[in-house]
Design a protein that fits this description.
Layout (H helix, E strand, L loop, with lengths): L2 H7 L1 E6 L2 E2 L3 E3 L5 E2 L1 H13 L2 E6 L5 H6 L5 E2 L7 H6 E3 L4 E10 L16 E5 L3 H7 L5 E5 L2 H9 L5 E5 H10 L3 E13 L2 E3 L3 H17 L1 H9 L2
Parallel strand pairs: 1-5, 1-6, 9-10, 9-11
Antiparallel strand pairs: 2-3, 3-4, 6-13, 7-13, 8-11, 8-12
Helix pairs in contact: 2-8
The chain binds glutamine.
The site of glutamine has 12 residues, from loops.
Length: 228
């Protein structure tokens, strides 16, 4: 979709997976909100169009982009070499590492990924958390489409840990006092906004908007709004 086509259509269609607070999650009013959503709103505003948020499983976002069902994927998505073969990424807009979350009462305190060998570990299907635990032989990986379901399994004792990005891990631990972060795994990831491969016009627009938001202080205001 060219910018002209998006303007003619009157809406920017953004795909996300809303169990990833504070980037995207469903609030009390049943609205998808968060840091990424505010960026999406700014992009739509600058195009003079409405914003349509489409909630999809995380591993469906790239196929949806490829099929032209969504214009952008804004989903705390890590820029990886594999993904960059099939979609184009904006400049990095956030830094991330993985976190291991356990139940406080479990006495299980893994300090590194290898400590998860022999344990049941929940992840979100197709995420970098899924990749890092699946890389280690001997971890019993249980994959969910929603982090909310992964944490339900942890709460019920059906898994021993959840591995996910640090910022959402902190958000879940803050919300549910039963959980704690037993360690941070330094993966040095950065998030990017994904567009369909080859859509330079839209990609340039996204990059320019990110630059403007950073330069004007609006980006920092969003950090304060969602991360304190
Ligand atoms: N940053 C992780 C990834 O890209 C997780 C993203 C997510 O679950 N929304 O795989």
């Amino acid at each position: 979709q060219t910018l002209t086509q998006i303007k003619q259509r009157g809406k920017l269609i953004v795909g996300t997976e809303p169990t990833f607070p504070p980037f995207e999650f469903v609030d009390e009013k049943n609205q998808v909100v968060g840091f990424d959503i505010d960026i999406a709103m700014e992009l739509a505003k600058r195009l003079g169009v409405k914003l349509e948020i489409v909630s999809l499983p995380f591993d469906s976002l790239i196929p949806a982009l490829q099929q032209g069902k969504i214009d952008l994927a804004i989903a705390g998505m890590t820029i990886t070499k594999e993904r960059a073969k099939v979609v184009d990424f904006s400049k990095p807009y956030f830094e991330a590492n993985q976190a291991i979350v356990v139940r406080k009462d479990s006495k299980f305190e893994p300090k590194k990924l290898e400590d998860l060998v022999g344990q049941k570990v929940a992840v979100q299907l197709g995420t970098t958390g899924d990749l890092v635990v699946s890389d280690i032989t001997g971890i019993n990986v249980v994959r969910f489409q929603k982090f909310t379901d992964a944490f339900l399994e942890l709460q019920n004792g059906r898994v021993d840990a959840v591995v996910l990005d640090e910022a959402p891990a902190k958000a879940y631990v803050k919300k549910f006092s039963k959980f704690s972060i037993s360690s941070i795994v330094d993966t040095g990831e950065t998030y990017g906004i994904a567009v369909k491969k080859g859509n330079k016009e839209l990609l340039n627009f996204v990059n320019q908007t990110l630059d403007i938001m950073k330069g004007s202080g609006q980006y920092n205001k969003l950090l304060q709004k969602w991360f304190e």
